[in-house]
């Protein structure tokens, strides 16, 4: 399911009050992580710190803390349970929280004290979609396939000048990094397709809102142009 550009997988349950998802596993445990809209709101998360907790924990106890430049928040277990695993990859690569919040960016593995609790206490995607849509609208949240490493605001400029700036910026960046281009040039949807074909770099997503165009561009490690520059 997608809500205003924000993914909400339907194969798990949610504690929307604490922005946590719960994904059951075959062995009776479950992985938990943060929902995409919260991660988008927080911006680039720079640190994940695990709490040294052992034994059974009460519902809504904190098992970790995540931090960005503008956000610090606790990750709380949505049912009574025991922490049986932690995602150590987040210690060195907290960016996974932003780029893969529902997969590689999982935070902890929990064994519920009562197997029936998740179905009784948590909600499916369909039940949280409405409240989450309203939150996204009120907070002006914008979700992207990956979090931009840079935002280029090019209001009032022609597309040729915008693309020159974009090329110069990508030349300074590492493969895999993403740049968000914001422009009011009405020709930009056509020009960005042409630019992507000529350079081999990918336009991951685009949006239009009140005459403002947004393009999320990723620098490819091995760009392969699909047409020659004219």
Protein described:
The protein has 230 residues and is α+β, with helices and mostly antiparallel strands. The chain folds into two domains: 2-139, OB fold (Dihydrolipoamide Acetyltransferase, E2P) (Beta Barrel); 150-218, Translation Initiation Factor IF3 (2-Layer Sandwich). 26% of the residues lie in helices and 33% in strands. It has seven helices and 16 strands. The protein has helices at 36-42, 89-92, 96-99, 117-121, 125-139, 159-171, 188-199; strands spanning 2-3, 6-7, 13-15, 20-24, 30-34, 45-50, 56-57, 62-68, 72-76, 81-86, 108-112, 123-124, 150-154, 178-183, 202-209, 212-218. It has a seven-stranded antiparallel β-sheet with strand order 7-10-11-5-4-3-12. Strands 13-14-16-15 form a four-stranded mixed β-sheet, with helices on one face. A hairpin with a 5-residue loop joins strand 4 (20-24) and strand 5 (30-34). The two termini are 40 Å apart.
Query: Largest sheet at a glance?
Result: 7 strands, antiparallel
Number of strands: 16
Instruction: Give me the CATH fold name of the largest domain.
Output: OB fold (Dihydrolipoamide Acetyltransferase, E2P)
CATH superfamily of the largest domain: RNA polymerase II/Efflux pump adaptor protein, barrel-sandwich hybrid domain
Report the structural category: alpha+beta
Q: Write the element-wise H/E pattern from the N-terminal end onward.
A: EEEEEHEEEEEHHEHEHEHEHEE
State the oligomer. Answer: single chain
Query: Per CATH, which architecture of the largest domain?
Result: Beta Barrel
Helix content: 25-40%
